[in-house]
Design goal:
Blueprint: H1 7-22, H2 27-44, H3 53-57, H4 62-65, H5 79-88, H6 99-106
Helix pairs in contact: 1-2, 5-6
Length: 108
């Protein structure tokens, strides 16, 4: 958890981490899942200094969404997720590509 987090977010983090561990996730994986979920909620509510595009534009919270947008979902990653990956890989022309073109450029 980031320094200066609210007590509510600290409790939320612990609850998510413990739940993941009860479901059989390793301690490291449980901490990662809890951190990502809490950080996303902080971004959505304006508590974070910076936030990613998908964190602030989702209409559902992470807990409501329940993994709908996970990379292994029925439709795979979103266009924004593909674009961010293309940006990290420095793929030319990514800003004018649609979802299918981004997939092809990334070799998916």
């Amino acid at each position: 958890m980031p320094a200066g987090s609210s007590p509510k977010r600290e409790r939320q983090y612990e609850h998510i981490k413990e739940s993941a561990e009860k479901r059989g996730a390793s301690t490291g994986r449980a901490k990662e899942m809890a951190s990502r979920t809490v950080n996303k909620e902080r971004a959505r509510s304006g508590e974070a200094k910076s936030a990613g595009k998908t964190s602030t534009q989702d209409k559902k919270s992470a807990s409501q969404r329940g993994g709908e947008r996970s990379r292994s979902g029925a439709q795979g990653p979103t266009k924004d997720q593909l674009y961010e990956e293309a940006k990290k890989r420095n793929i030319d022309g990514r800003s004018s590509m649609n979802k299918q073109q981004l997939r092809k450029a990334l070799g998916r």
